[in-house]
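Dear colleagues,

As part of the handover before I leave the project, I'm documenting each prediction I ran so the next person doesn't have to rerun anything. This entry is a single chain, and its sequence is reproduced below.
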Amino acid sequence: MTAHDAALVKARPKERLRRHSAVALALFALLFTLLLAVIAGFGAAMAVVDRTARVLPDYERIDLAPYLAKESYTEEDYDVLYHQTGLSRTAVDALEEKEMLLAYQEAFFYEGVLDHYMAAPTTPHCVLYTEDGKSYYAPIAPLEDGDILVTSTCHTFGWRNGHAAIILDASSNRLLEAVAPGEKSSIGSVSWFTHAANFLVLRLKGVSEEERHAVAEWAGNALRGIDYSLFAGFFTPKDQGDAPYATHCSHLVWQAYKHFGYDIDSDGGPLVSCNDIARSELLEVVQVYGFDPDTLW
């Protein structure tokens, strides 16, 4: 072997090392670029979804004084009040004083300042503040046990998964909810929803107050302290009978009513979402806030 050949042989390991280093550097640069793209995409999706968290009326606010002076309302009157306050006939008739309609109208047309906080590491929750930075809480319709609260203000990677809960005790505004992985279902407060940029109050149609109270009572006993699972209905049975053991927010609400024979999952798939519940024909709207009153979610 000549001296030149020996030098070439000696140089080959260094050349291979340089090539390997270049390949590794290129792969690192590619992965880093992809990571930045994912982060940027997540940020962009979050910003876009945040801006659509609240829908304001695209029509004029009217003077409700003539309606406050009326002894009774026609169907047309109820429709006007619904589109001015977000309250259905059921809610309007439940108000203690007609003057309360003005507060609901004010909230219905209030723009406020949208912001969010992280309800979970990947899940922002869109809420409303006043112009001077104070938390804004919308007035909520008179509630009854068993009522369902739904919001679309929680979103993950651009998907509005939302949140749902069932009213256990309307007199104290206590509700039952499944919040996040690693947490058990627990008692919460209505104020979490009224601070949100939107919410719906839903109620089972054509069923007595006593039966809806029974649903709430069973939920408080059987569905409290249950492990959270995103996969309830996929890797566990959807209907878990008398002793549920895995749930998430919308599944918890669905399971409570399913136990009494009411399937409020509008599409009947293995996964019940908040949107599925909002679209159920078994439920009536009591109040709409921050959603389009005609199309809802």
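Confidence is low (pLDDT under 50) at residues 35-42. The chain is about 40% helix and 15% strand.

All the best with the project,
I.
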